[in-house]
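step: validate -> pass
step: tokenize input -> pass
step: predict -> running
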Amino acid sequence: MVETKEHFIARLNTVGDRHSKMVRRGYTTRVDRNGVIFAQPKKMRLRLPVKGAFLLVLAFFVFKAFILSANGPDAYKDRLSTLEAGNFVEVLGARVLAIDPATEFLANQMGPLFR
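step: predict -> pass
step: emit ->
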């Protein structure tokens, strides 16, 4: 079996890549039937920040409810109608900021705090 310097460097790079993956991701160990311990890098998983996304959406609804309860429904609808008469981005913003049941419920709960 003839080994060249390039083969040796390629094997070293493979070992180095594997070790860097184990440092970044962590590793799992397993013992085979001969008693040899193998360390393997953990598989890369796609982690979705579900809790963060939920809190962001909740904060958005609370913000909408705060603005609705602070301005009142008539003034809020007037501002939305102004947005609906604008360009594409403003129309999209008007649709996102429209009064929905969740916003209305939260605004009704916040209402006594501002009056």
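step: describe -> The longest strand covers residues 27-31.
step: cleanup -> pass
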